[in-house]
Amino acid sequence: DVLVTDDGRLLVTGQLVRGDGIRRGWVGAYELDGQPQWSLEFDDRDGVGVITQTESGFAFVTGALGGPSEIVSIDGSGHVTGTYVMVDDDPNVGSPYALLDTSNGLLLGGILDNDLWLARLDDGQLTTLVHEDHVGLYDAISHLRRQGDTIVALATIGAHNLGNGDSIRFDTVDTWFIEYDDQGKQLRKTVLTSGEEHISIRVIDLA
Fold first, then answer.
1. Which residue of 129, 139, 158, 206 shows the fewest CB atoms closer than 10 Å?
2. Alpha carbon of 26 to those of 6, 86, 142, 148, 200: distances in Å?
3. Residue (of 169, 167, 164, 145) closest to 155 by Cα position
4. Residue 59, exposed/middle/buried by CB under 10 A (0-12, 13-18, 19+)?
5. 54 in Cβ contact with 96 (< 8 Å)
6. What is the reported pLDDT for 184?
């Protein structure tokens, strides 16, 4: 992921693979001219995904094969200030694809049991706000943005496509903008594509 910060820096997340072939989660901070400021490596994490700016610094998702995801908080200088472990066997814990800081805690958008999932992490407590089962077989919130007094989510509804019978892939059959209030109550939904309009959507930035 790539984040442009409020003070004009770039934060980049991903993974490093050195000569030993081991994947390590990585976060790097840069000036806009490309000059490095600091970087973090996580030996026990094989990648770092989505990142967002928070009131006290930044928060991002880390992952490891065979282990739970974690939400890691850092300050503006790259020092870790907190970690929340997404317990695998908790039925209320999904896979976060999007993060957004709010006055009521950190919002997580993603997928739980192949359905839309929106949750709040506040003071070490994770609360599911939305868990919606739709007609798709792989429904997810992939992006979250603040727009005035509302939170806008990009949601994709996936369908199963057997293709030539040798492989299974997921097609996006519905794409929605869903607006929520800070408590997770749905205010309105805008359908961008639906029905037979099978598309492959890639979002760079909704800001």
1. 206
2. 21, 19, 21, 32, 28
3. 145
4. buried
5. no
6. 83
Q: How far is CA 187 from CA 59, 115, 162, in A?
A: 27, 19, 35
pTM here is 0.83
Secondary structure of residue 176 in the 3-state scheme: strand
Given a contact cutoff of 8 angstroms between Cβ atoms, the answer to whether 135 and 153 are in contact is no
What are 72's strand-pairing partners? 60, 83
Three state DSSP letters for 91-115: CCCCEEEEEEEECCEEEEEEEECCE
pLDDT in tens, 142-196: 999 998 889 999 998 876 555 555 545 556 678 889 999 888 888 999 988 765 5
Q: Is the separation of the CB atoms in 13 and 48 below 8 Å?
A: yes
Question: Which segments of the chain are extended strands (E)?
Answer: 2-4, 9-17, 23-31, 36-42, 47-54, 57-64, 67-74, 80-85, 95-102, 105-112, 115-122, 125-132, 138-147, 150-161, 169-180, 186-193
197: amino acid identity, one letter: E
The mean predicted confidence, pLDDT, of the chain is 85
Tokens representing 121 are: 């992490």
Residue type, 185: K
